[in-house]
Write a structure and sequence with these properties.
- The complex is a heterodimer of chains A (465) and B (197).
- With 465 residues, chain A is α/β, with parallel strands linked by helices.
- Helices cover 34% and strands 17% of the residues of chain A.
- Chain A has helices at 5-13, 37-45, 75-91, 106-112, 144-153, 178-189, 204-208, 211-219, 235-241, 250-260, 310-323, 349-359, 375-383, 386-393, 442-451, 457-464, and strands at residues 14-18, 22-26, 29-32, 56-59, 94-96, 121-124, 138-141, 155-158, 162-169, 197-202, 228-230, 273-278, 285-287, 295-297, 338-341, 368-370, 396-397, 418-421, 436-439.
- Chain B has 9 helices and 7 strands.
- In chain B, strands 4-3-2-1-5-6-7 form a 7-stranded mixed β-sheet.
- The relative contact order of chain B is 0.17.
- The chains are: A alpha/beta (465), B alpha/beta (197).
- The interface between A and B is large, with 79 and 61 residues.
């Protein structure tokens, strides 16, 4: 029988199935962070051990300060980091802690270290765990009760989602990135457009994306309601993983590569839903509202809420009120107060290179922060001299962590201030109380830094060429 | 957690679509331990300086009726803790984000999905209504008008019995161990080699 990649991954992990509870799935990689403290508390309450500490990895990222790590001023932040250290030590879990040179954002360091591999089931108490699906893994975010369950049993109960394929074909235009693909489909289908589905990304455009680009695409799946985003592994995937610290080697590597190449959707397999997108229709895209679906090409104007149906009209009115914008306003006329380059969505080396290419020899008109996705990405960027480009342009080069994406580690956007950001959520208050966030790609954030407003990066790219 | 079958309470409307978990509980409050309680942080930013907010205008609300895609965004279970600690037992909406709905059920909070949520929101307006929710029949009464809601049998049983997944799964330890051993035999590379520290 023909099967989708989702079917193959699901079936391979099913320990048990019953009508009442659904599928009991084996978890190959469990990633925990500071926010997992509730789960560890549940485990301690019941005096349960961690079932497979060798498959569990701790990462300090959500609360990781990006400055002043030697002595953390905020006691709440210090306490969260100490809790993680205590919990991982108590249960024998390897920790990429604040003082580890490999520390970084969980969804950056998993792939970087070769912990993420094709065919694995990856769980983490973070909704952007879908990032790891870029490697042909079944990866999804879970809540604290489920984190405790995985710690205790190395399994998770899950209902099989419906299957959905988003096929993108054709060549992306200049200045158009994986971030734009994601914002484009979310704007088209809505923030709940893929709810209940696992999305497989396919088509020539996806095949042409780098692994970094595929990670960005899978990362944003949850913003369209999909808990899972998957790309079938190929030569590019295998080349990326070869020689990574935790990746297999020797005979294991050879055997793994054979198995990984089987992880494709069969030709005759059927999906519950198919969506087709022409890459030529995708432009550099920015959000204007307070959900990722409220996004448009940079050349657009702010829409009139009256043009939306019922609930969406109300949502648009409320979003414009919060964002301090008016219908008919050109997106390119919107001034920004600051920029942020970072997060599990867009802080890998390729992202930093793309932003630096725009900023090279130019000055930023507004302040901004650049937080690399990991300390190894940071070191590589410094080897390439990217840090000097950012600093000379007037941006701050800081350490790695979730930083300004999540407003819980000291890095926040001030109330009423507008930030051009490479992050994943433009929700009210996401980057700090009263913060106004516009999501976009790294090149677009760099362009906004240079001009002090939302800007079509293609114009700056043409100037350079 | 304690199981339950019926709930009698007071409903209020939050007529907003895409209520995300950052709005339910802003990130800055999440370092608190569960014992400290999260109720005071529920919708903290939406409520500040807004006397008209439904949970402040009316006391004793235990059923919240909201717009579609409730609980989207972060997987933070603290969003559910905040609702429960503020006395909310049931959230009614046309649709829920998946992770939120799972977190809710795992903590005894009912995510009652109904296509009629919009009509209920309209009927409630800025007022409250008495509600009776019945998990057995998957129906609820709002001021004597009856509506149905969707809830999988798995989730219904969990709520009724107060089941904990860990208890359910620990009875299958042998099957899990057998699976682990078979998987290790077939795909040994899944167990990470010891990388340099």
């Amino acid at each position: 029988m023909s099967r989708t990649l989702l079917d193959k991954l699901w079936d391979a992990h099913e320990v048990a199935f019953d009508e009442e509870n659904g599928s009991l799935l084996w978890v190959d990689r469990h990633l925990v962070h500071e926010g997992s403290h509730h789960a560890f508390a549940k485990l301690a309450e019941r005096d349960l051990p961690v079932f497979a500490p060798e498959l569990t990895f701790g990462v300090a990222d959500h609360y990781a300060p990006t400055r002043g790590r030697a002595s953390i001023a905020d006691p709440a932040i210090a306490q969260m980091l100490e809790r993680l250290e205590r919990n991982t030590e108590r249960y024998g879990i390897r920790l990429f802690g604040l003082r580890d040179p490999r520390q970084g954002i969980v969804h950056v360091i998993g792939p970087e270290q070769g912990l993420t591999l094709p065919g694995l089931l990856v769980n983490c108490g973070d909704s952007h765990t879908s990032t790891h699906g870029a490697f042909g893994a079944l990866a999804f975010g879970i809540g604290a009760t489920q984190v405790a369950h995985v710690l205790a049993t190395q399994t998770i109960w899950q209902a099989r989602p419906k299957s959905m394929r988003i096929r993108i074909d054709g060549m992306l235009g200049p200045g158009v990135t994986a971030k734009d693909i994601a914002l484009h489909w979310i704007a088209k289908l809505g923030t709940d457009g893929a709810t209940g589905h696992a999305v497989e990304y396919a088509g020539s455009t996806v095949r042409d994306l780098s692994m970094e680009g595929r990670m960005t695409l899978c990362n944003l799946s949850i913003e369209g309601g999909a808990r899972f985003g998957i790309v079938a592994p190929d030569d590019r995937t295998i080349a990326y993983l070869k020689g990574r610290p935790f990746a297999p080697d020797g005979d294991d590597w050879d055997r793994a590569c054979v198995a990984w190449r089987e992880l494709v959707t069969d030709e005759a397999a059927r999906f519950d839903r198919e969506v087709r997108i022409d890459a030529a229709d995708i432009a550099p895209t920015v959000t204007w509202g307070t959900t990722p679906e409220q996004a448009l090409p940079i050349t657009s104007t702010i829409p009139d809420p009256g043009t939306f149906d019922g609930g969406r009209a109300r949502a648009a009115r409320e979003a414009l009120d919060y964002m301090g914008l008016t219908p008919g306003q050109r997106l390119e006329d919107i001034a920004v107060d600051q920029v942020f380059l970072g997060s599990c969505t867009n802080a890998r080396i390729e992202d930093l290179r793309a932003a630096a290419a725009i900023l090279k020899g130019r000055s930023a008109r507004v302040p901004g922060v650049v937080s690399p996705g990991s300390m190894l990405v940071r070191a590589e960027a410094e080897r390439e001299g990217l840090d000097r480009i950012f600093v000379e342009a007037g941006l701050e080069w800081v350490a790695s962590g979730c930083s300004m994406c999540v407003g819980m580690n000291g890095d926040v956007v001030a109330p009423g201030k507008r930030c051009a950001s490479t992050t994943n959520r433009n929700f009210r208050g996401r980057q700090g109380k009263g913060a106004r966030t516009h999501l976009m790609s790294p090149v677009m954030v760099a362009a906004a830094a240079v001009t002090g407003r939302l800007t079509d990066a293609r114009a700056l790219m043409m100037e350079q060429s | 957690m304690a199981g339950w079958t019926t709930h009698d309470g007071l409903a209020a409307a939050l007529p907003q679509a895409n209520v995300d978990t950052d709005q339910i509980i802003p990130a800055r409050f999440m370092s608190a331990s569960r014992k400290e309680g999260y109720g005071d942080y529920l919708f903290a930013d939406l409520r500040e300086g807004n006397d008209a907010f439904p949970l402040d205008r009316h006391a004793g609300i235990s059923v919240l009726v909201a717009g579609p895609n409730f609980g989207c965004g972060s997987s933070r279970e603290a969003a559910v803790y905040a609702l429960i600690d503020a006395g909310i037992h049931v959230v009614v909406a046309e649709s829920f984000a998946e992770i939120f709905a799972g977190n809710a059920v795992n903590n005894g909070l009912l995510p009652a999905r109904t296509a009629e949520a919009g009509a209920i929101l309209e009927a409630l307006g800025t007022e409250t209504a008495k509600v009776r929710v019945d998990l057995e029949t998957r129906r609820f009464l709002v001021d004597d008008r009856e509506y149905g809601f969707e809830l999988s049998e798995i989730w219904r049983r969990k709520l009724v019995n107060g089941w904990d997944d860990i208890d359910l799964t620990l009875s299958r330890t042998e099957a899990i161990a057998a699976y682990r051993d078979a998987r290790r035999g077939q795909a040994p590379w899944i167990w990470p080699k010891t990388a340099p520290s």
